[in-house]
# Entry
Amino acid sequence: MPVFDLSTTPLREFNSALRNIPEGSNDFSFEVLNPRGSHAVAAGIDTPVTVDVQGSVGYYCAGMNDGGIVTVHGSAGPGVAENMMSGTVVVEGDASQYAGATGRGGLLVIRGNASSRCGISMKGIDIVVLGNIGHMSAFMGQSGHLVVLGDAGEALGDSLYEAKLFVRGKVKSLGADCVEKDMRPEHLAKLAELLEKAGVSGVRPEEFKRYGSARKLYNFNIDNADAY
Amino acid sequence: MSYHNPHTPPRKSATFDDYTLAEIRRAAATGIYDIRGGGTKRKVPHFDDLLFLGASMSRYPLEGYREKCETSVTLGTRFARKPIQLKIPITIAGMSFGALSAPAKEALGRGATLAGTSTTTGDGGMTDEERGHSEILVYQYLPSRYGMNPRDLRRADAIEVVVGQGAKPGGGGMLLGQKISDRVAEMRTLPKGIDQRSACRHPDWTGPDDLEIKILELREITDWEKPIYIKIGGARPYYDTALAVKAGADVVVLDGMQGGTAATQDVFIEHVGMPTLACIRPAVQALQDLGMHRKVQLVVSGGIRSGADVAKALALGADAVSIGTAALVAIGDNDPRWEDEYRALGSTAGAYDDWHEGKDPAGITTQDPELASRLDPVTAGRKLANYLKVMTLEAQTIARACGKNHLHNLEPEDLCALTLEAAAMAQVPLAGTGWYPGKNGF
# Structure
């Protein structure tokens, strides 16, 4: 397994290695030592590599990941797995702002808490947070699922489009056009699937509430101006 | 003896003129602000208020048909491994597929390629047709991130991080539901027929310190190949340019308030932002103060119409210009041949700006297949190329008259101003004097 020590190896060398695996090589698993809050670690993965980051990272770890399996054995700074296309990103600790922002696919699992704007403008990504999430999460979420085992902060799902939100704990407040919705069998099934994928056990889908768009702001109407 | 009292004719208020009264009535009737496309329509100090001095006893000109006047420009020389080489210093500004029809985007790509310059995507992602027909394509990285993916980032020739737009510095966008066709909806990951809001701020960074890290990420994802532009609206050009340089830009694109938009509130277009003319010198000053003039290239847009405008922008310190509205006109927007249909829409050729409604008779700002089919992208592309070539020839004509063998050799000393306002903004002397407002503290 190739090991990159970021205290001695330039970031460019590591990220380049992820995308330039020699033909015939079987080295698809990488380990990163001493990330020490480095930014853009494992950004731009475009092959099914496995990356284990031993420590905490800065901004945009696994940004635009397309097929990689990245595990951060620490916490992640802002924008972890932003615009993810496919693959899996796991943060063993906490995640800062904008986790999974604009993500289009794949699974982001945060075993700790996520800060504000988790899943902002999400476009198909699935996000499972075992702890709590901060304010304005899933703002303008277009598609995908956000699952929160803990509590959600203020203005959850503000200006939501078609992303589906599941929260097990308390929601401090809902944002504009976000409402609680019935949990139908297909939602329970999807939730069970996501919890299993995220490696969560001992939690039943029935413990969650579902939130989604009231779709009242989909087409501009001056009578809704107070909502903006 | 006949006697009658003399009376004055009815007098309308200059403050409450006919247009203002009509707008009050419209607002009262509809309850919504006016939304339209384009840039400011009010008269603001502009390049028309500047003149070139030409050659004289102290400068001698170049022979128009004999001596070379170069026009090429390289963008992205600071950090990018693969800078952009353009034959002419006039690029096509970002306009989205969604706001524009697919044939219109194709025409812009064809025209730009024929002329040896770049075109730019917009808020809605990159289409295969656009990539295929544009030899040099700049990919916009916008707050909405509609259609954003690493594959398109890597197949772009440059990346433009859009922070602001001259028509609406500080504003986002809205593509109304009637322009959301199946294809537009799919590219933007949203249901068909709903209004699509484009945020005014990026979702995963705020401020220049964050942007510096965002640019690092974009460079890592694209192997440090692509030039990274930062586009700013004409708001605080000195500080915005300085901060863009600090954030790591290879190129700064500066868009004044004459620059167009697909759709924004009229009040925003007309009352927020600064004229292009007022933006250039502060931006150039910022680059000079940082020792980055000509190292970080400056592209100026907003109201560029002719080779004279190109030459004036370059003389004030820009490395290139960008055109949007003029390019649309060149391919057929607001053409009088559609006058009957413009009138049916309550407008007239030259004034039609309801681009957001998707009913453009010229087939440019629409997603209606029947209307879009009116635009032949090959012919329209040829027209754009012709127009770009004319602008280039015009700029060369002026540069030679000023004794310059490259458009980039034009300088503020080649200019004078016709008005005090223009003299102050461009920091060139009022015609016939050696003075401009603010010079030497006066």
Chain A has a mean pLDDT of 96. The CA atoms of residues 117 and 136 of chain A lie 5 Å apart. Residues 113-215 of chain A form one domain.
